[in-house]
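Purpose: get a first structural picture of the assembly so the mutagenesis plan has something to point at.
Setup: two entries, given in the order below. No constraints added.
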Amino acid sequence: MKSTLKIAVLLFLSFNAFGCSFIDDDLLNQEIRDFSRGVVILSGIIQKDFSLAEQVNTISFTDNLRFQLELGGDPQTTLKPLFSTSDIAARQSLLAALDGYAQTLAVVASGELVASTNSNILGTVENLKSLDSGQFNLSHSLSLADSDQLVSDVGLFEGLFILPERDASLVHIIRKGGAALKKTALLLYFDIGATKDQSGKCGYTIPKNNVEGDMSSLRLCRGGLRSIVEMAINYDTSTWKDQLSHLKANSSADPGTRGKIIQKLVDIQELNQSLDQLLGGTQETLAAMVGAHEEIASTVNLASHSSVPPLSFVSKTGLFLQKVSALAKAVTAATAVVSEMSAFSKSDNYSQPATADSSSAGGVNGK
Amino acid sequence: MASSYQDALSKLLTAQTALNTQDISALPGAQAANLEKAKAGLYGEIQALQARWIASRDDNYQVATTAFRDCEAELKDLSKWVIKKRRTDSEIFELLYKGLGIALSLLL
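Result (structure tokens, whole complex):
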């Protein structure tokens, strides 16, 4: 037993001695730069997610407006965007803070100085101060107090941008930045939401979520961007189903029209699946970002206190980057499909002849 | 009728499902147009409730969009028509009748 212990101690000492010269700072710094790059790409994808939601809402509005007019109706013609200008600005501020933090990490890891007077950083700090929980879509799964706390915690980024010691210590920035990064990821995770209740308590209350714990343990109620997108697509699906049904009663319809309607009906339902996968994937990637940051923080911390090389060297950054890469492809594909549908929706490619009934109705509701 | 935002959202979703179930080919043109306008109004209201900030899900509900408010006449007209039709075709219009009643209860 004693000899086994001696061998273990000798192995540890020799490993430790070898480790002094084995730690590769360039490799670690490269990992941090890769992480930073991934965060910036993810941030852009999240902006695109919200933009796609607005586009789908516009498509649904246009398709229904066209159909109402064909029926001889008197539709509302004002398009109402899903999100207000201030709601969009709040999310942009949050993502700018995330970008700013990631870029700060990359600069410090490269041994360069961050200019504290950088106007982008100063602007981001000011915007963070004006964030309000009401600008995000959290009430489906978080109480007002928890929502306020989450938004308040995101302000932790501010300290990392303006503290003088940030230039000196990567360890300091990463250690403190972890909390702000996780709270930002949580805020965006809740904001993206869920299409279905993930807790049995959703019918009567808000489920208790431990925001300090693992993100995979979160249980959301129906709401947020995923639910909004699903609703927009279901609305469009319903419009196309109604058009198909209306066509049944119209024997003079162009035979090609039925084919076009069927194609749109299939396309919009396929889009529902791909967009929900994109949004779910965005949430998973936010969780992977937090995991990768925690591992980098642990590695940097270990490297600053010991010469022992970390055994699982930032493998989660690789996983995070893989997810970001897959997400970037998914968002590009979804953007192409939505753009095509949008162009079709606004074009005169599709036209269904009005029925004699609707054309002679003289408007709706007896007018 | 006083209703919380949570209740209102639930009712709007129920009404929407009921209206979506209706086969539009069973309706004359004017009522089909009424139905589509009602669906547009419900959709806009649901999205507004989902996207807007609600301080408390138990706060008293107030109609959030003009689209929903402006389809009240269409909902009433369609409802009157359905009530007449239910005398002979009750099964075909049962769900639509319920959905219209729920939607109107949030507006009146």
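Chain A has eleven helices and no strands.
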